[in-house]
Amino acid sequence: MMLILLSLGAGALLEYLPPVIHGSSEAVDRPRRIGYIDEAQRHLLDAPFTGPEHERLVRFGYDVVNIDLRRGGVEDLIDSVDALYVSGGDTFALMSGLRRSGADTLIADRVRGGLPYVGLSAGAVAAGPDVEPAALMDDPGLGLDLEDFRGLGLTETVVIPHADGQLPPYPTELIDRTLNEYGDRFTLLPLYDDQALIVDDAGSRVVPSTEPVL
Fold this sequence. Notes:
Blueprint: E1 3-6, H1 11-16, E2 20-21, E3 30-31, E4 33-37, H2 52-60, E5 63-66, H3 74-78, E6 83-86, H4 91-101, H5 103-112, E7 117-120, H6 122-126, E8 158-160, H7 172-182, E9 188-190, E10 195-200, E11 203-208
Parallel strand pairs: 1-7, 4-5, 4-6, 6-7, 8-9
Antiparallel strand pairs: 1-10, 2-3, 10-11
């Protein structure tokens, strides 16, 4: 299993999941096909797949496959890609969309079977066992149809992104309140914007993830 959980900077993505898959002696190199899910942003954007994260993946050289959870064919699309990317936005809107579409179970199954998972901010939080610790940072009202706040359960750790307080919506006081309120019930990992959590066969570790200059 391979998880690349980002706060903001994407340097670790390029290091651990390069945009080009190198072929054998009998095959040519090809761009890595990465399925892009933007459900966490759909309530903010006028149209799907127009966010800066999508543009960044294209700029990096990935073959980006848009996956709209509100339409059919999600399973076929997921089965056609080399990795999944779940964008930032609102964690509760994301989990609501994953549950409604049944993509939560599908994604967890495929990732445990070896499909790499990349999550940024909300996408990183959703990979954990529960998204309740995001309640002070995001809007639980966007997940009113959720029976509970279970995450994808791909890791036992709940990532708390933007923990260095550099983004105006997430000052250090808010991060401290989150850690104090939920730290007794969940295993929380404060993740700075220039860090990433890598989970693979070698275990779990925090690595540098500054934004590359291309």
